[in-house]
């Protein structure tokens, strides 16, 4: 038994050593906890508190060496507030709808910045900010993000179609037709796309373009139009057809009127539009149209009417066979009227007896009429007799009567009768 005692002491020593190691480990854990916990707390505060983060950045930026240089790149609290103020001022300066859109985008990308901006906006203008926030809340309640996005896409599509419709309607009809043909041939849904454009166009503009298309193409587009738009465009077309018939009948009446008188009715846009006048002048015929337009001294007006006549012919017939003859007739009659005006000025300075002698000689020894042929077969005849009659018409009634009294009875009677006859 005595021999085993030392062994027992050794075992007791070995048992005491693990206890000392356990104490050391416990102290180490306590120290780690005491160190890590504040670090974690500070880190969490740094991450979640923007004000604390900015303050720490400001302190650390003062540390010399690479640490200070690194934190100098971060904005200070003052700089951050300046940026917030710029955003909040801008949001309050634009319309509510635009502010709502932009704030929703900011909220989705950076909710913290959104909160800071809203706080600053409330400080600057609480009433206006309250209205904006109410709008944001109502939108959030009524629509989710997907619905809002889809709606915005649809709104943008409608806006694009309206812009395209306005552009095409502003073009000359021939150019507008070309644009519509490009759209209809661009895809399998081309006629449907064209119909959407016509839906956003006035009935008048749509009618002008649609009824210049081939009937098959026009009917395809009509099939995609809404019932109301379909009806209103066709109704507009019927009105235009009726109006054109009326203007054609009016032109038939005007054919027998004196050009010098008729120009007072169809020589400007007081009674008729340029579109209506183009129809009237077409149905007067090239010779009569040129003779009437020759009486106008408003070259801009004359050009507008002739250009519209040309445009109508090219659209309906693909060839213009009218305006070249109208221009030729216009030139002939304008030169004739200019000659009459010049001779009237000269004869007005002469004695009545001398003028009577000139008229007598010209009537008795008249040279052959000068004849001009138009491309459509009409013949314009300018004679000495016609020249004298126009000169006499230009004189005051007293002088006209005095001249006629100096002619022999037969010639005087003939001239008097011809002066009284209506011009065709």
Automatic annotation (TrEMBL):
User: Which ranges does the record mark as transmembrane?
Assistant: 25-48
Origin organism is Fusibacter ferrireducens
Superkingdom is Bacteria
Q: Which UniProt keywords apply?
A: Membrane, Transmembrane, Transmembrane helix
Q: Where is this region: Disordered?
A: 1-21
Its name, as the record gives it, is Uncharacterized protein
């Amino acid at each position: 038994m005595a021999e085993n005692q030392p062994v027992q002491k050794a075992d007791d020593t070995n048992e005491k050593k693990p206890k000392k190691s356990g104490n050391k480990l416990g102290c180490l854990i306590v120290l780690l906890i005491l160190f890590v916990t504040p670090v974690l707390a500070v880190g969490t505060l740094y991450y979640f508190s923007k004000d604390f983060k900015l303050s720490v950045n400001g302190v650390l930026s003062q540390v010399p060496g690479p640490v200070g240089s690194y934190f100098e790149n971060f904005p200070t609290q003052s700089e951050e507030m300046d940026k917030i103020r710029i955003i909040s001022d801008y949001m309050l300066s634009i319309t509510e709808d635009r502010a709502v859109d932009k704030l929703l985008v900011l909220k989705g990308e950076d909710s913290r910045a959104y909160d800071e901006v809203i706080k600053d906006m409330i400080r600057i203008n609480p009433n206006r900010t309250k209205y904006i926030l109410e709008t944001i809340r109502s939108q959030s309640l009524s629509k989710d993000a997907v619905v809002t996005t889809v709606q915005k896409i649809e709104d943008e599509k409608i806006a694009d179609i309206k812009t395209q419709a306005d552009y095409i309607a502003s073009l000359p009809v021939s150019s507008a037709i070309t644009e519509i043909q490009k759209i209809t041939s661009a895809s399998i849904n081309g006629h449907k796309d064209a119909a959407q454009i016509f839906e956003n166009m006035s009935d008048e503009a749509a009618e002008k373009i649609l009824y210049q298309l081939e009937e098959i193409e026009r009917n395809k587009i009509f099939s995609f139009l809404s019932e109301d738009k379909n009806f209103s465009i066709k109704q507009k077309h019927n009105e235009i057809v009726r109006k054109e018939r009326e203007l054609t009948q009016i032109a038939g009446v005007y054919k027998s009127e004196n050009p010098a008188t008729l120009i007072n009715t169809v020589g400007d846009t007081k009674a008729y539009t340029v579109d209506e006048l183009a129809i009237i002048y077409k149905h007067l015929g090239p010779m009569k149209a040129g003779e009437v337009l020759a009486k106008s001294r408003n070259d801009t007006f004359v050009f507008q009417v002739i250009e519209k006549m040309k445009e109508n012919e090219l659209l309906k017939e693909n060839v213009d066979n009218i305006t070249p003859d109208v221009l030729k007739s216009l030139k002939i009659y304008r030169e004739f009227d200019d000659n009459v005006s010049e001779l009237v000025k000269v004869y007005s300075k002469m004695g009545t007896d001398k003028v009577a002698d000139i008229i007598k000689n010209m009537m008795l020894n008249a040279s052959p009429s000068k004849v001009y042929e138009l491309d459509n077969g009409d013949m314009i005849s300018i004679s000495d007799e016609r020249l004298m009659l126009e000169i006499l018409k230009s004189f005051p009634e007293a002088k006209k009567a005095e001249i006629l009294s100096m002619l022999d009875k037969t010639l005087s009677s003939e001239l008097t009768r011809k002066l009284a006859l209506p011009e065709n």
